[in-house]
Write a structure and sequence with these properties.
Elements lengths: L4 E5 L16 E2 L2 E2 H8 L6 E4 L10 E3 L8 H9 L6 E6 L7 H13 L6 E5 L5 E9 H15 L8 H4 L4 E5 L10 H11 L5 H13 L7 H14 L4 H15 L4 H22 L2 H4 L1
Parallel strand pairs: 1-4, 1-6, 4-5, 7-9
Antiparallel strand pairs: 2-3, 6-8, 7-8
Helix pairs in contact: 8-9, 8-10, 9-10
Length: 284
């Protein structure tokens, strides 16, 4: 498994949001920052550059100099706390960044050969998104040092001064690069997660984050159990049964196997219960 650290840039004035605290804006019941932190949960160290705020998991906090000095100043502040040879660099406004994109970025960096210094996501218009990327730490530190030597400061410098000096690979990903710069973007993100095709996955992810649990949920199996309980027993039996399955699994140490075993027993019970309600002719 690739060892990496993560730097999340969570500063900035968010002028197009009227000065709102953008990382704290919620999409799907979770702040934008927490959604990004969930995607990079495998990092050995996670550094968030910006004002301190509540987060879903512990992080290292850093501030750029000067405050509001832009992405290069923020990146330099974050890299001071990085220890791994590979670092994930992310903005804090990526509602659809997931663990799959993080894995793809890291795998792309590993597979690109010794000459590659980073891999960045490319959006639907073919534009590179350097704040959705995986990099080798040493080249970032090298080029930031050269920029300081040339300009005297990193404050206010554009990000392209760094990226044009790096050998970068590109990763096309359909959703990871979507960022929220305006309230219209926020509205689009909130509407998208309520689409029928993803609303259950989004809801389960939000509940797991809120409860602080890590568990692969067999959504289909539990929905089938709820259906069997509702149809074979009574409608209120559905939520009560799934709750009891979760409680039983927790009593047995938790984990996917415990949930699957408890669900199997409950499904069998619901089938036996329903069998008794049928007429002898139907049951035969």
């Amino acid at each position: 498994m690739t060892v990496y650290d993560a730097v999340v840039l969570a500063g900035g004035a968010a002028r197009r949001l009227g000065g709102a605290d953008k990382p704290a804006v919620r999409v799907g019941g979770r702040s934008l920052l927490d959604r990004v932190l969930g995607a990079c949960g495998g990092a050995a160290r996670t550094v968030v550059v910006g004002p301190r705020r509540p987060t879903v998991r512990p992080v290292i906090w850093a501030r750029e100099e000067p405050p509001g000095g832009g992405p290069l100043a923020g990146l330099a502040a974050g890299l001071r706390h990085v220890r791994a040879e590979r670092v994930l660099v992310l903005s804090a406004d990526l509602p659809f960044l997931g663990e799959d994109a993080v894995r793809a970025l890291l795998a792309g960096l590993e597979g690109a050969g010794a000459g590659a210094e980073g891999v960045v996501v490319v959006d639907g218009d073919g534009r590179e998104q350097p704040l959705v990327g995986a990099y080798r730490s040493e080249p970032l530190l090298r080029e930031l040092g050269l920029l300081v030597a040339e300009h005297g400061t990193l404050g206010g410098l554009p990000l392209r001064l760094l990226t044009t000096e790096l050998e970068l690979g590109r990763l096309h990903h359909p959703t990871a690069s979507f960022d929220c710069d305006t309230w219209e973007d926020i509205g689009t993100a909130r509407a998208r997660i309520r689409d029928d095709g993803s609303v259950l996955d989004e809801w389960i992810a939000a509940v797991k984050a809120e409860l602080g649990i890590e568990l692969d949920v067999d959504t289909v199996g539990l929905l089938d159990l709820a259906r069997d309980a509702a149809h074979g027993v009574a409608r209120p039996a559905a939520p009560l049964t799934t709750f009891l399955v979760g409680y039983a699994a927790a009593q047995r140490g938790g984990g996917p196997e415990a949930v699957a075993e408890a669900a199997r027993k409950a499904v069998a019970l619901a089938a036996r219960w329903a069998e008794e309600t049928r007429s002898p002719d139907e049951a035969s």
